[in-house]
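Re: the 43-residue chain
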Amino acid sequence: MSDTAARIPEDIKTAMRAKDTTALNALRALKSALTNAAIEKGG
């Protein structure tokens, strides 16, 4: 897992605590896109 991908969950928590909905939505979309790409790749 790349350093950036490993940092996303931390950033999501930070955005939740700050109630930053724009950042939270963007981070969730990014996490989903990375997950979907990993699934399409086969693992």
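Residues 21-41 form the longest helix (21 residues).
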